[in-house]
Sequence to fold (167 residues):
Amino acid sequence: MRKTNIHSWTKEWAMAYEQEQKLLKEILKDELVDIFHIGSTSVPTIGYAKPIIDILIVVKEIEKVDRYNEALQKVGYEPKGKNGIAGRRYFPKGRQNRTHHVHIFQVGNEHIQTHLDFKMYLMAHPDDAKAYGEMKLKLAKQFPDNHHMYQEGKQEFVYELVERERS
Fold:
């Protein structure tokens, strides 16, 4: 089971995203519609995050993404298919010591807006962002060897914030 490692926010995460998005744009250029840095590493006011860069990619046709599996594997990504979310293609990088998570959805998929709404809410509400970061730190200490429980522990808070943004 993967450990839950939380780090203080650093501007290096933004630089890591910029570097990776250039690589991904080059690989997916024929299908790419848009690309975003999402997740806790994209919001400085959260203060803490797992050092994993989450990237949201929007494509023209999700089925065509599978054609890029080999090219993505060559640069370290592992194709995981839907990985539990219909309409998504998921690619982690770094195996046990993950560095990136790429989430790919087709234009119009509701998950795109959910991810963007969550980030926008946190950017606009620094107190909630800070509370989210502190909760992540607490959960990581509580479940250092159980990543699943860490994820489960923060999920309700995430849903609540997304709903606030949509209200």
